[in-house]
Amino acid sequence: MDNKEYSVPMTELKVLILDDNNLTARAIANVAEFIGLSAKVTSDFQSFLNILNEWQPQYLIVDLIMPDMDGVEVLGELGKMQVEAQLIITSGAGQQLLHAAARSAGAHGLNVLGILPKPFNPKAFRDLINAESNNTADNTFGRQLRAENQINTLTVTELEQAIDARDIYLVYQPKVSCISGALTGFEALARWHHPEKGFISPEKFIPLAEQHNLIDRLTLQVFEQALPFLNQLQDADTVQGIQSRGLLLSVNISAASLKNLYLFKQIELLCKSNNVKPDQLILELTETAAMDDPVMSLDILTRLRLRGFRLSIDDFGTGFSSMLALVRMPFSEVKVDKTFVMTSGDSRESRLVIKAIIELAHSLNMQVAAEGIEDNEALELLRNMGCDQAQGYFIGRPMLADAFIEWSKQSSEHIDSHRIKHLHGLGLLDSEPEQRYDRLTKLCTRLFNVDISLISLIDENRQWIKSSQGFSQRQTERSIAFCNQTISQEEIFIVPDTLLDEQYVNNIMVTSAPYVRFYAGCPIRAKSGAKLGALCLKHSEPREFSIKDKLLLKQLTEMVEEEIDYNPFLDEDKLTGLLNREAFERRAQKLITIFAPHQIPITMFYFDLNNYKRIIEAHGISAGDEALIHFSRLLLETFTDTELVARLVDDEFVVLCICELKGAPLETLAEAVKQHNSSVSPHLNIQYTVGTACSQSMLNVDLQSLYMYADSDLYDHKSP
Question: Which residue ranges does the record assign to the GGDEF domain (predicted)?
Answer without folding.
Answer: 600-720
